[in-house]
Amino acid sequence: MDRGWYWRLGLVIGVTLLTVWLLVPSYYSLFVLDRADRNNLTLLEERMPKWAPPAKYRINLGLDLQGGIHMVMRVDTKTALQKRSERRGDQIARYINTDKQLGQVTVSTDPEALRLSLTAADPNTMDAIEKEVLATFTDFVKVSRNGATLVLAPDEGQVNRFREESVDQAMLVIRRRIDKWGVAEVDVRKLGTDAIQISLPGRSDPEQAKELVGTTAQLEFRMVDDSTDFFRQSFTQTPPQAGSNITLDSAEGFPQLVGPNREALLAYIQPKAPADRQVLLECIPSATRKGVCDSYRTYLVEKEVPLTGESLTGADANLSQLNEPEVNVSFDAAGAREFELLTEKGTGRRMAIVLDDYVQSAPRINERIGGGRARITMGRSGGRPLDVWLADAQTLALALKAGALPAPVTTGEIRQVGASLGDELIRKGSLAAAVGLLLVIAFMAIYYKLSGLIADIALALNGLLILAGLALFNATLTLPGIAAFALTLGVAVDANVLINERIREELSHGKTVRMAVEQGYDRAFWTIFDAHVTALIAGFILFFTGTGPVRGFATTMIIGLLASLFTSILVTRVFMNYLVHSSKAQTLSV
After folding, report:
1. Which pTM value belongs to this model?
2. β strands within 256-391, DSSP E
C-alpha cells in the first residue's frame, strides 16, 4: 500500500471516532434521560461521562417532534415612541434653560401625534432657541412656529428606524433571557413588523414560559453607593441563616455579599436597604457551564436613574494598546451631555450598568467624560486568561447593545402545542424509515455483492455524520429535517451506484481490477461532484432566504451532501483500494 492510503485511512478513522464522540450528548439526551428531563442541560451534564463533549452539542428536537410552547410577543413601539418624545422634551428644556441659558422655555407633549410644543417666556429669545434646538436635536424636525411657540415632531426616518431597531433589540433581550435558562433549541424570529414569534420545544407550562420571557427591560446607568458599610453592618448585626452559604466578600475593593441562591440573597438583604437605595445583583458566571450563574454578588445603588440606554448608539469590545480588553461606547448628542454631567458629578465613584435588573458591570469613573464616547476598561486580575477577559468584554458589549432603544413587550398569544405527529405516528415513521433503509442496504449487498457491502458501510457512516453535524451546529431536527435526512441518504446511495457501475464498465472493457477501480473513481468523481455542488447551491439559497422549517430542511441537506461527498469519494475508495492492492486481486465482486 502507498503512503497516501495510510493517511486516508487515518482520516477516516479519525472522523469516525469524532463522529461517535459528538453523538454522546444526543444519545444520553434521547435514550438515557427521561423524556421530561430531555431539555435539562444541567442534568445532562451530570449524567454524561467526563470525557464527553459539552451538553450543548446535541441534537435538538423541534416543536413538531416533541411539542412545547408557542408564543407571540407584541412590541409596543407606539408607547416607546411616546415615552421617548417625553424624555426628549425634558432634555430640550434642560439644555435651553440650564446648559445654554438662552431663556426659559416650557415643553408640552402631544402623545398621539408625538409632537413637542416649546413655548418661550420671552418671545424675543425664540429665534436663538429654534436655531440651537434644530442644530443639536437632529432627530426632531420643525413642524410650525407661531410667535413664541415652536412645534417639533420626530423625523420620519428616525421613527421608522426606531421601530425596526426596537423589535431587533427586543429579540436580543428575549433570546438572552432564554439562553440564561438553558433552553438550547429555542426559535426566536420576527413576525411581521412589530411581533416576535418564540418556540420553546419541550416546555409544558405556558405560565412558566411567560414568566421566563417576561418583558424587555431598559438599560440603565446608576450610581453605586460604595462609601457606606451597609453590607458589612448587615452581615455582622443580623447574620444570614445557617445553610444559606451567604458570605461577606471584598474582592471588588469594598464589602459585598456573595451567595449561590438569588432569591435567598435578595430576601435576606433587600428589606434592609435604605429608602433611597436598592440592592441589585451581579451574576458570577460558571467557569464550565455557559449561561449558568455559580453565585451572585450584591451592589447597593441609588434608586434615581440619571441615564438610560435610549441615547446609546454603539458598543464594541476590543483590545487596548496595552493588550487589555475594553468596551467602547458612544452616545448621541443629547446622551453625550447627560453622560458628561453624570461622570462629572460621579468622578471617583462606581457607575453600575444595569440590564434586566442585573448589574452587568460597575466600572469606576476616573474623570469627567465628554465628547459622547467612553471607554470601559475590564482590567485583568485573578490570573484569568486573556481570552476569558475578552469574552467578558464581548458579553458586556452585547448587553449594552441589547439594552439600547427598548420598547415595551406584551404577550399577544401563548399556547401549549403537542407533537404534530404524536408518539404512535413517530414510532411508525421511524419503523418505516428503518425498513426502507434496510431494504436499500439489502439491495446494495445483493446486487453489487462485496462492493455493495462497502457502500452500505459508507451509508451508515454517512447517516452518523449527518447526525453529528446537526449536534455540532446545535441544529434543531424537525419533520422537514427528517425529510432532508432521507433525501441525502438517497443521494449518497446514488453516488455509490454511479461508482460501481463505472467500475463494471471499465472491467467490461478488459481492464485489470486495479486499473478499473482507479479509473472508475476518477471518471465518476466529476459527475458526483457536479451533482453535489448544484444541490449545495440550492441548499445554501434555501438556508439564507428561508426561515423556520425551510431553513431546518436546508441545514440537514447541506450537512448530508457534504457527508455524502466524503463517504462516497474517500471512505469507499479506502476500502476498495485495500481489497485490490493488499490481496492483489484478479477479480472484483461488483
Report:
1. 0.55
2. 256-259, 277-285, 293-302, 307-308, 312-319, 325-331, 351-355, 358-361, 373-377
